[in-house]
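Co-fold these.
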Amino acid sequence: MAQTGITAPQGFVASATTAGIKPSGKPDMALVVNQGPEYTAAAVFTRNRVIASPVKVSRENVADGQLKAVLYNAGNANACNGTQGDVDARESVNTLATKLNLAPEDIGVCSTGLIGELLPMDKVTAGIETLTAEGALGDNGKAAAHAIMTTDTVDKETVVFADGWTLGAMGKGVGMMAPSLATMLVCLTTDASITPAMARTALAKATAVTFDTLDIDGSTSTNDTVFLLASGATGIKPTQEELNDAVFAACSDLADQMQADAEGVTKRVSVTVTGTTTDEMAINAARTIARDNLFKCAMFGSDPNWGRVLAAVGMADADMDPDHIAVYFNDQAVCLDSTGAPGAREVDLSGADVAVRVDLGAGGEGQATVRTTDLSYSYVEINSAYST
Amino acid sequence: MAQTGITAPQGFVASATTAGIKPSGKPDMALVVNQGPEYTAAAVFTRNRVIASPVKVSRENVADGQLKAVLYNAGNANACNGTQGDVDARESVNTLATKLNLAPEDIGVCSTGLIGELLPMDKVTAGIETLTAEGALGDNGKAAAHAIMTTDTVDKETVVFADGWTLGAMGKGVGMMAPSLATMLVCLTTDASITPAMARTALAKATAVTFDTLDIDGSTSTNDTVFLLASGATGIKPTQEELNDAVFAACSDLADQMQADAEGVTKRVSVTVTGTTTDEMAINAARTIARDNLFKCAMFGSDPNWGRVLAAVGMADADMDPDHIAVYFNDQAVCLDSTGAPGAREVDLSGADVAVRVDLGAGGEGQATVRTTDLSYSYVEINSAYST
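Predicted complex below.
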């Protein structure tokens, strides 16, 4: 049994192939199959109102708390393709259902890549043929994680070993990432025996403090989907809390991997806000800082320009005392009572990790951390010639 | 009489000097004096809750609708300097008041530059000496406009000739610019005879549709100030509407100049949104697109990646029909009914101006335009090593 990724838990097999959807000729389709005996499933989807066709299909199919397989493709988002996009997403699912002898309603589907191009259905159909061919499905979690990459430079997997049961996961996502219910494609699998309600609860709790607080560029995708699939193959029934812990650990690990591989990243920056009334206010303020391009450019330049933190946070929807804000870079005070602290301009930010802490000076127990990155030449380069 | 800028209207003189506040050794202080016979004044200030010391002083002094002079410095924002910052702003005003034999309450003060460094008061005091020396004040509007520049590459002036009276203006601002009551330093002067109430009305109406809809990087400054000063020297009393027209024309011209000189700009991009319920919703949607880094990078790459427009606008707080959004680049349809239009990927965006129009498909009379720019390597370069 593989010890990483989605095929680590019992009851799950996967396959991957190169269907020719990506112009690069790299692997671009993957399939995850839950072999049971249980088929519990839950999902969270993008909050964007412009949603991709596969999201519509997946949302319908997971509503009953059960899925037996999920089909993935990279290189084409199948978003903004009108009714033809919906038809193509359903046809992919129907083709796979026939091959696997499943009902179409028991299949989820995820796409990622360029928005606004029709899926090349001949390639997708041939890809499904390969993914389901004799001997294709097996302990191929790593190959599946590799096939769902877009501008990712490394595949992203994790596994959590619990008390007699296991939770595995894969994910992709390095750009168009901002707090939403989910902000990327992620698939979590477990061989524990859980109910759909337990799965939904664990997923909602974990994503709120992991993927929801990861903000690379303030842009929210049309395709974001996080699935949690449970086979029950171990027969072990964890408590809600045990499940929550495992799902959180996996989501947190994947979120870290996404931050580390973010488009053009040279700095991993965490922004923690305290000293305001509620957690919601703290997250508003942390997001406002994390999305500020001037702040992000300063991080790229290893420039301890704390004034930009104050200028950014002054626009945030959060209780604050504008005369008593404190800012710390890597635990060194650079601003106290909204004024520069001694040595503030000499703080060394040349390392790859920067921890920013901001106390808004309004008292209160509100606290939140957002993970973000710097804004580099590479981010601009990667994103200035994507579709053409 | 000079025919450009703040000294074009009768009753205004200006001076400029190099006080040594900018490390570059370029001009960095300016003075505008209203010689009357009237001293009407109005102002709009930053909405940021973290505000610079000069903003606090100016806000107090303009409250009575009268100012006789405004002192400017560039190279230091005098923001986030605590009570010492307030003391320094007041001391500058007091020094100038003595030199000009004015009451301190009749003087406005504006600073722009690095946040969080104390003003070098010896240099400021010497600068005021030079600005007020025998023969210094005169038709020096252009020199004043030059002295308030920071990362601006050109000075920004305009003049509006009305029926027997004139309105002149200067401005600076190329980064840390986002919709707020005002988003930069601007000084408008006129020789018309107007009341403070008329001045306030004209300024509020004009800034709402000019500076408020200019968004370079989503960052709102701590120092933004727009002054309108009227000398009444012509004795002509325009109607409110005539004044509104002139103030709007000057603000619109300066906003265009700021957009054209924005940090790292290679494209001037206008984003117009229609097909939603209210103007406020339209501006929310236009701002959301204008602030989206993926969209801005696509503009830099002349990439007609309309999918990013849909992904961005799907997160906006505006009524829309997600299945019936239309996008036009330079009047060519690239997306109709939320799906790619024929030839969409072949649209030529290589020119310096890109007009983006988005119809949200929800009907309604809401409409708004936001002016923005692309996100380029130069923007990152300019902003990644600013304070150090």
